[in-house]
Amino acid sequence: MTKRAFGELESQILYILKSGERKTVKNVHQALGGQDNYNTVMTVMSRLAEKKQLARERIGLQYEYWLIAPAP
Length: 72
Description:
- The chain is an alpha+beta fold.
- It is built from 3 helices and 2 strands, in the order αααββ.
- It is 43% helix and 17% strand.
- A hairpin with a 2-residue loop joins strand 1 and strand 2.
- Helix 2 crosses helix 3.
- The chain is globular.
- It starts with 5 loop residues before the first helix and ends in a 5-residue tail after the last strand.
């Protein structure tokens, strides 16, 4: 397993969420092929939410994330 830089992983996560569909960390982790550590994916997604790139809503015990539309 090759380690990726956060910037590359961030870009891949944003690309996966580009469809506009809400996804959980588990969904994104699976879409990435499971090659990255689950906790790493969760941390990067949380940081993207802090940077206002993603929005999130708690549903039960997990969060659903989606892409925030870029400003015009």
